Amino acid sequence: MPIDYQKLLNWDIPQVEQQLSTRDTILYALGVGLGADPVDPNQLQFVYEENLKALPTMAIILGYPGPWHAEPGTGVTRSHVVHGEQGFVIHKPLPVAGAIVGKTRVTAVLDKGRDKGALLLTACDVRDKASNELICSLTSTTFCRADGGFGGPSGPVQAPHPIPDAPAQLSCDLATLPQAALIYRLSGDYNPLHADPEYAKKAGFKMPILHGRATFSVVGHALVKTVCGYDPLRLKSMSGRFSSPVYPGETIRTEMWVAGKVVSFRATVPARGVTVLNNGRAEIA
Which residues are catalytic, by number? Predict the structure, then answer.
């Protein structure tokens, strides 16, 4: 069944109530590589319950509605869905435990044409359940590779953040674990594309790929480490566009350009010579 534009644009995504625990916070950080040096106090603050802190990128798993687009009637081909873009803005320090509520809504459905796919844009507000205070705002673009040509609008599309045409000022290499996707999925994204080799092959990949959100989070770790001095409160916002998948076990290099409080960034896998996250923009305090 092809995408029904009006139906998908007005799809009611159920509100998510989440009881976040310190175990969830630690598991998320372990899944994106924190604790690789188990005696580094900068990393331990995210994976040890004593004075535990949340990695800023954990914002993107809060109130996560799961694969709602796999529901019958959306017209989306789940096996051919990949993450296109991700962003967050933090309004108050992320909790390491407590009750939160996330409400996701569809903001646009764009038709790139037959054989070119479709873009599904969403936004999510994450609030403290008790006080209703806004904790963070999330944006996401899903690339539906098999679902273009349904007759919907092709725009408008926000222009990507430009990367300076100059050598990077800063660079940070972080390795991912071979089992990174199998750990990260325990933070709520159970898409078999990241665990089942046969499913991944049917989707056109040689093996299960790392979650886009995990790649994004590894890059976020690089930003916190390199331009925030491992102070998580300094990273206020972050956004980027996925350009190629990462395979678990690969090393991700994050290149950074700093202009005042704005950091432009790009991430590559040097071993394959590919850019995996591009047009990145972060704001720091």
Answer: 189, 194, 209, 212
